[in-house]
Design brief:
Elements (H helix, E strand, L loop, with lengths): L10 H7 L11 E5 L3 E7 L7 E2 L2 E2 L1 H20 L9 E11 L8 E12 L2 E10 L2 E12 L3
Antiparallel strand pairs: 1-2, 2-6, 3-4, 5-8, 6-7, 7-8
Pfam family, one: ApeP-like
């Protein structure tokens, strides 16, 4: 499946770029990509496993931000076989959650790569709802077999 045009909003194309599968997929659009930055979004639904009492939880926000990084790796490394790299969160620092979004809210997360060396990546993330900062943090991720 060729994925050459942004934005990517087709569910199957998104699944081709990340290793996660239902019910844990926490990105539904790849909005922008460059070598050092990626932007992705998620529309929060009542059926989402991280939704409780019409509110998206902290764990869901962090997973959404982590999957934004996974989209960057998947889009960068996509190949004809559809293989995407498997990554792991090595560390999460400076996590701040300012407010919890509600069902139907659209989260947009920008991940900016600070440094990348031997399969280890330091990333700064900002999660927004419209013009409101929902959460920010730093993550270190590692690609398996890098």
């Amino acid at each position: 499946m060729a994925i050459n045009t942004l934005p990517v909003s087709d569910k199957e194309q998104i699944k081709a770029l990340i290793p996660q599968r239902e019910p844990i997929i926490m990105v539904d659009k790849l909005l922008a990509y460059s070598d050092t930055e990626v932007k992705a979004s998620l529309t929060i639904t009542e059926e989402n496993i991280f939704t409780a009492h019409n509110t998206f939880t902290e764990a869901g926000i962090i997973e959404h931000m982590a999957q934004t990084i996974a989209l960057h790796s998947g889009y960068k490394n996509k190949d004809e076989q559809g293989d995407v790299p498997i990554g792991f969160i090595g560390a999460i620092k400076k996590v701040e959650v300012f407010t919890l979004p509600k069902v139907t809210d659209v989260l947009t997360t920008t991940a900016t790569i600070v440094t990348e060396f031997m399969g280890i990546t330091l990333v700064k993330l900002r999660c927004m709802k419209d013009d409101t900062l929902i959460s920010e943090c730093e993550m270190k991720t590692a690609i398996a077999n890098a």
